[in-house]
Write a structure and sequence with these properties.
The complex is a heterotetramer of chains A (395), B (202), C (103) and D (181). Chain A has 14 helices and 2 strands, in the order H-H-H-H-H-H-H-H-E-E-H-H-H-H-H-H. With 395 residues, chain A is an all-alpha fold. In chain A, a hairpin with a 2-residue loop joins strand 1 and strand 2. In chain A, helix 7 (160-191) runs antiparallel to helix 9 (218-234). Chain A starts with a helix and ends in a 13-residue tail after the last helix. With 202 residues, chain B is an alpha+beta fold. Chain B has a domain at 47-175: Alpha-Beta Plaits (2-Layer Sandwich), CATH 3.30.70. In chain B, 42% of the residues lie in helices and 14% in strands. In chain B, the strands form 3 sheets. In chain B, strands 6-1-8 form a 3-stranded mixed sheet. Chain B has a 3-stranded antiparallel sheet with strand order 2-5-7. A two-stranded antiparallel sheet of chain B has the order 3-4. The longest helix of chain B is centred in the C-terminal third of the chain and has 31 residues, at 158-188. The mean pLDDT of chain C is 83. The longest helix of chain C has 31 residues, at 60-90. With 103 residues, chain C is mainly α. Chain C is built from 3 helices and no strands. Chain C has a single domain, classed as Helix Hairpins (Orthogonal Bundle), CATH 1.10.287.3510. The chains are: A mainly alpha (395), B alpha+beta (202), C mainly alpha (103), D mainly alpha (181). Chains in contact: A-B, A-D, C-D. At the C-D interface, helix 1, helix 2 and helix 3 of C face helix 1, helix 2, helix 3, helix 4 and helix 5 of D.
Chain lengths: 395, 202, 103, 181
């Protein structure tokens, strides 16, 4: 029964493809199967996007002792629908000085790769659109295109704020991509594979009550936290939302976008967050595996989406808590703290691999990472609040 | 150590989040169309005309003196005086406005009309839900929409209305006393009637 | 025409376009773009010969391209740094105007 | 000669032509990114998965961004108001390029050694690439590491302005020497 429930979507797809093959030639089987997977993925994540916009506004409201949206539908549940209708019916304003073609293409260049990145995330047992041999590399490769789209949006608008926002965004994305990839590399070292499916399989299984998740090791915990911070910076989430700081550069690179194009940027940003959170789950939180042995009867995709929702909730919580960083703080945090710590984490992961199992390797790796954390953190804090700012003109 | 502040901050916002579900006092937002706060005594939006008695056409306090029309800074009041006097609600003959219009889209709620009115005939309303799709028709209020009973005035501004009523009653009593005194004095001598009034007005 | 021929033709045309760009552009960055295109045309050749060659299991072509990509990245970084230094020195990146030997 | 090959090579070539012929340099850089993405698609078509993704990561993610940054940092280089985007001697340049390309094309078309090309479908698993890198090509890998480090440091030093020199040289223009984005 549990098995059946777990594989219900996989079975449904097979049945559907079989039924469709009665009507179309057999050579189309692969195409049909891929199209069905893609459609399901698009619908599921678009629905999750709608839900998340609502949850975010509700959660932020509660953190600030407000209600949040509660007018459209019961408990405000239809608010995303209202937002969507609003975005679709709004006038699409393009500045006269803008570079029309680049301005038009930029949102597409953001949305398409971001959805492509979802293709390698295993959302359940046997539920992945493509199991690529170099899946992780694929994820980061298509993620690279978003930087270009941000630049295109910022440059083509012919607005100094949008260009500033784009430059900030690119500088930030490039800086945080280094610790992001380095902390992912630790997992690749352990799993011995770049395939996301294989990485999840490595983490399946229990020793006693504890699952074999990577986050439950010293290097995994450090890697997970580093990955989460870098992911927040990659997805332009608070406290790293300088590129779109409303109060300083009035929404940054999408200042000149309105209507449906703005909605596309918004969608792209959230799907990017889901993708990178999904990758964090795949790499460190055991993907679709159950956290405890006796709840394994719960379908695997439920676990994946539960983990995804809790990570999103964490991001919302952080957004409701932390103020935005300053640009120099952002950069010194990336290069003086994140990068050395992720390199040391790489070392710790290597040691973990080659030290004999037991308490010694736990103690050794934990001590190494804790010492690095305290030392780097102290040096960062001592330079007066994450590095002192030097003013060029306003001395 | 690095990160302590972040954890403290997260705890604080977490407490806010959970607290908002268990302590209703935290949520200060008024859910406006369903629940509304009572308007304060001194609240004001736009003017209305007060009438006494039951029939608004007879009971209007306004005598069409047109002071408010002249004083109104944005000139949103338009009055046409009736040529003949008509009996008011107690049967006394009075001038009455034939037309009394206020353009709410022009009015700036300055309350000068209320201050200059010698008859306490125009007062400020607290009604604020005036949005309409017909800007020229629905925001130009005529006499019929402007006239509201004295009881309504008592309801929205109780203290002020009581004061006004007391003053009006006192003036009425004084006028009554004066007419009686006049009636009494006319038989004796009409001349000293002005004398006791002079210090009172000064 | 075999697939190998087609791929090599694409590579040759790409090289020609890149060469034309490198020779004819006035702007230093434009020249760099042309050089990048030529680099990539060469890489395509390696992949094509690996794919249709007699010993694909040796992975020589793939590894050569990987190294070549790494070198191209380094080349681009240094080249652009040179262009920025040039701009700072001469206030222009138009190669016609950079014609004095004396700094 | 399949449809996907045609589409990808068309994208690559059109992008390349646009990259060398457009007037606005930012457009050139974006066209270059499109051409290199098309090339990555060609690699995938040729079953070199790892190389294709590496190409996307390095070229679209890093080199294109680097070029764009350089364009914005060298002010006034993004447009060429005076005259054509090419040098005065563009005719010999283009002619030389056309001759070179024509020569190569003729060589390819007339080559007999290429004729019996194999129709195998080889695989390049990541594990095999990694093993090769760590055994047979380990020296090259280390050299690449040194090269990249040297390039990194060199680029920083070339592009860096020393505070003392800058203030000495550009004192009168210190307001204009700040890159105006």
């Amino acid at each position: 029964m549990a098995e059946k429930l777990d594989q219900i979507f996989v079975q449904a797809k097979h049945e559907l493809v079989r039924w469709l093959l009665c009507h179309v030639p057999g050579a189309w089987a692969e195409v049909l199967s891929a199209l069905l997977s893609i459609a399901t993925l698009l619908v599921a994540f678009a629905a999750l996007f709608a839900l998340t916009t609502l949850l975010e506004r509700k959660g932020l409201g509660r953190i600030q002792n407000r209600y949040g949206p509660n007018r459209v539908g019961p408990f405000g549940l239809l608010q995303p629908v209202a937002d969507g209708i609003k975005a679709l019916t709004k006038e699409d304003v393009v500045p006269r000085a803008a570079d029309q073609v680049v301005h038009f293409i930029a949102p597409l260049v953001l949305v398409v790769p971001v959805f492509l990145a979802l293709a390698v995330l295993p959302v359940g047992r046997n539920m992945v659109v493509v199991d690529l041999d170099a899946g992780l590399l694929f994820f980061f490769a298509v993620g690279a295109a978003t930087e270009l789209s941000v630049f295109m949006a910022g440059w083509s608008s012919r607005n100094k704020y949008s260009l500033l926002g784009a430059m900030r965004a690119i500088a930030q994305m490039i800086s945080y991509e280094v610790p992001l990839i380095l902390s992912a590399v630790t997992v690749v070292m352990m799993a011995g594979s770049l395939s996301t499916v294989r990485i999840v399989e490595v983490q399946a299984g229990f020793s006693g009550w504890l699952p074999h998740w990577h986050v439950l090791t010293p290097w995994g915990l450090a890697g997970f936290l580093l990955f989460l911070i870098a992911a927040a910076a990659e997805a332009n989430r608070c406290p790293f939302d300088l590129p779109e700081g409303e109060s300083e550069i009035i929404a940054g690179y999408y200042i000149e976008y309105s209507g449906f194009k703005f909605a596309l940027f918004f969608l792209g940003e959230y799907i990017g967050l889901f993708a990178v959170s999904g990758l964090a789950i795949t790499l460190f939180l055991g993907g679709w595996t159950a956290p405890l042995p006796f709840v394994q009867w719960v379908p695997s995709y439920v676990w994946f989406f539960l983990k995804l929702l809790s990570l999103i909730a964490f991001f919302i919580w952080v957004r409701g808590t932390l103020p935005r960083l300053r640009m120099d703080q952002l950069m010194s945090f990336a290069w003086k703290f994140m990068l050395p710590l992720s390199l040391i984490n790489l070392l710790a992961a290597g040691l973990w691999r080659f030290l004999p199992e037991g308490l010694t390797r736990w103690a050794f790796c934990s001590l190494l990472l804790a010492a690095a954390y305290i030392g780097l953190g102290r040096s960062l804090v001592q330079r007066r609040n994450l590095g002192r700012r030097t003013y060029r003109f306003a001395e | 150590m690095l990160g302590e502040g972040i954890i403290k901050g997260l705890a604080e916002t977490g407490r806010n989040f959970l607290g908002s579900y268990f302590e209703p006092d935290r949520l200060v937002t008024v859910q406006y169309p369903e629940e509304r706060l009572p308007a304060p005594e001194t609240a004001r939006t736009f003017p209305f005309l007060v009438y006494d008695g039951d029939d608004w056409q007879k009971g209007l306090r306004c005598v069409a003196c047109q002071i408010c029309e002249k004083e109104c800074p944005p000139q949103c009041i338009y009055i046409v005086k009736d040529i003949t006097k008509k009996p008011d609600y107690i049967g006394k003959l009075q001038f009455q406005p034939k037309v009394f219009d206020i353009d709410l889209s022009v009015c700036m709620s300055c309350q000068i009309c209320v201050e200059v009115c010698p008859f306490d005939a125009i007062k400020m309303d607290v009604e604020f839900e005036l949005s309409t799709t017909d800007r020229f028709g629905r925001l130009l209020l005529h006499k019929a929409e402007l006239a509201k009973p004295n009881e309504y005035y008592h309801k929205i501004h109780p203290a002020e209305a009581a004061e006004v009523d007391a003053r009006l009653a006192a003036e009425k009593a004084k006028a009554l006393a004066k007419t009686q005194a006049d009636a009494a004095g006319k038989s004796v001598s009409p001349k000293p009637a002005l004398k006791p009034l002079a210090p009172a007005s000064g | 025409m075999t697939p190998l021929h087609a791929t090599l033709l694409v590579s040759a045309l790409l090289f020609g376009v890149g060469l034309a760009g490198a020779l004819a552009r006035r702007n230093a960055i434009g020249v760099l773009i042309g050089i990048e295109l030529m680099f990539n045309a060469a890489n395509l050749n390696f992949i094509a010969f690996w794919r249709y060659g007699p010993h694909p299991e040796a992975l020589t072509g793939i590894l050569f391209v990987l190294f070549s990509i790494a070198i191209a990245a380094a080349e681009a970084a240094v080249g652009l740094a040179l262009i920025i230094a040039l701009y700072r020195h001469c206030r222009t990146v138009h190669l016609d105007k950079v014609n004095s030997l004396k700094g | 000669m399949t449809a996907d090959f045609l589409i990808l090579s068309l994208l690559t070539l059109v992008g390349a032509v646009a990259a060398v012929s457009l007037r606005n340099l930012v457009h050139c850089a974006l066209a270059l990114a499109a051409a290199l993405a098309g090339l990555a698609g060609l690699y995938l078509h040729l079953q070199a998965q790892f190389v294709g993704f590496a190409q996307l990561l390095v070229y679209v993610g890093a080199v294109a961004i680097l070029i764009v940054f350089a364009i914005l940092l060298t002010r006034g280089s993004d447009s060429e108001p005076d005259g054509p985007p090419a040098t005065r001697g563009w005719v010999p340049g283009a002619g030389l390029a056309a001759a070179a390309a024509g020569l190569v094309v003729a060589a390819i078309l007339s080559s007999r050694a290429l004729a019996p090309s194999l129709q195998s479908s080889p695989e390049a698993p990541v594990r095999a690439i990694g093993e090769q890198l760590m055994t047979r090509y380990v020296l090259a890998l280390e050299l690449i590491g040194i090269l990249l480090t040297a390039a990194l440091i060199g680029a920083v030093i070339i592009a860096m302005t020393l505070p003392s020199r800058r203030s000495a040289e550009h004192k009168p223009q210190s307001r204009t020497s700040i890159p105006d984005l």
